Amino acid sequence: MIYLVRHGETVWNTLGRYQGIKDSPLTSHGVRQANIVATLLKRDIAGSEQSLEFCVSPLGRTQQTVAILQSILPLHKNDDERLMEVSAGSWDGLTKFEIEHEFPGALCGSTAYDWYFKSPDGEKLDQVCNRARAWLATVRKPTIAVSHGLFGRILRGVYLDISIPEMLELEVPQDGFFILDNGCVRAVCG
Predict the structure, then answer these.
(1) How confident is the model over 81-111, as pLDDT tens digits?
(2) Annotated catalytic, 7?
(3) Which of 9, 85, 123, 148 is catalytic?
(4) Residue 49 above 70 pLDDT?
(5) Which residues contact 135 (CB under 8 A, 6 or more apart)?
(6) What separation in angstroms does the CA of 126 have from each of 94, 112, 131, 155?
(7) Can 85 be counted among the known catalytic residues?
(8) What is the pTM of this model?
(9) Quick check: 129 and 64 in contact, CB under 8 A?
(10) Cross-strand partners of 163
(11) DSSP character at residue 106
């Protein structure tokens, strides 16, 4: 069983700025979201804390979210780079408008969901799917994983073995989490 958590809202989320592997801090709303998630998780895992793994992306926004979770759930975390957000290379930290201005024509033919993979020096979708598969293959016991929006979509899509378009359109709430268990995914939201 995997409890998949996305970090709380960040300043760059509110600005439409794609973070990739760059960072911005949680907003006050993001802090509230992380507290909601911690409360929901505490309810769902009550009594099984000692048997859980706690794997976390090493990026700042996930670490800030985890610090809030740990104030309610005293779990020892293990940082895992495989849970990091998808990097769009030189596009990390930019908005779609800035990308269109600085890289004219680069987003032609892209959808609202696949443009991340058009970057000339960013991660490619196959690479990210392989990273998700590699992480999933190492999960041996119930695990809380704290990750990111786009990577969380891909991780769930790989787990469910669904098509790329379906995968990229999955929801990415920041005030809840997903439970991946026995080939099914269930949302738990506040």
Answers:
(1) 999 999 999 999 999 999 999 999 999 988 8
(2) yes
(3) 85
(4) no
(5) 55, 80, 82, 83, 145, 155
(6) 23, 18, 9, 12
(7) yes
(8) 0.94
(9) no
(10) none
(11) T
